[in-house]
């Protein structure tokens, strides 16, 4: 009897053990690289946009642990204050501040930058983290299609408004969160604002491609200033980004995909690692205009290699946001 039992059970037991081990390592692999270097950020001033949850919040938490002075720039001040309190409690770093920034409004962006400069005359790290994805057609306060408006134009204006203080604080860094989705993007030269046609996925990909082209062009303009700018793909991360995606955003959708999310989708903490690497790794001191994923340099997609697209986008962005350098 026992022999039969063993015979029946062994393959099952071994099979499931092997699968469990396989799934464990697959998950470890999918969670991506970790930034493990110790750095001391005491006295360094950082701005992180869109950080009341997800990757942004985890990024602020780790920066706070390392002693940085951090300005959390968020639209929803109630959630921002709540996240700030949690971070102060967890790190005992009281130099964490919540300030209002609505990337849908150029007025709000200018107010934020003015207010920041009144409080601080240094800025060492700017992390353009905020992003929206897969939205139905909407316009910002200034009439920009919302995905290119928030993900690119808002951050374009914010970055340019802060360049003087970044330059005077050099060495300093700008970190731009893009996405692997940039590979599917195209800069619609005849319809950048999606007035003739709108496809929510394509508008997202265009905005993420814009992040990389912006990084490419800005890095050229910043040569020799001691300010670097790099873009990155944080990984596919389980945050509120999916809230607008029809099926995945629903209750049933969430339950059905939960096991796959556990294996294939990074936690927010793991999603923050490449941002921390780009912002802090001493080996990147002189590295600019690059693209990272899983805490290593990667090649950008072919769509992101056209200088003329980068120049076109820069000129349009200056016109739209009424600023130039
Ligand atoms: C960056 O450049 C400066 C000036 O050339 C040099 O002193 C420094 O060692 C470089 N840093 C790294 C990490 O290569």
Automatic annotation (TrEMBL):
SUPFAM superfamilies, per the entry: NAD(P)-binding Rossmann-fold domains
Family to which the UniProt record says this protein belongs: Belongs to the short-chain dehydrogenases/reductases (SDR) family.
Gene from which this protein is expressed: LOC108017846
Keyword Transmembrane helix part of the UniProt annotation: yes
Lineage: Eukaryota, Metazoa, Ecdysozoa, Arthropoda, Hexapoda
Entry keywords, A to Z: Membrane, Oxidoreductase, Transmembrane, Transmembrane helix
Chain segments annotated as transmembrane: 7-26
Pfam families for this protein: adh_short (PF00106)
Matches recorded under InterPro entries: NAD(P)-bd_dom_sf, SDR_fam
GO MF annotations in UniProt: all-trans-retinol dehydrogenase (NADP+) activity
Protein name per the record: Retinol dehydrogenase 12
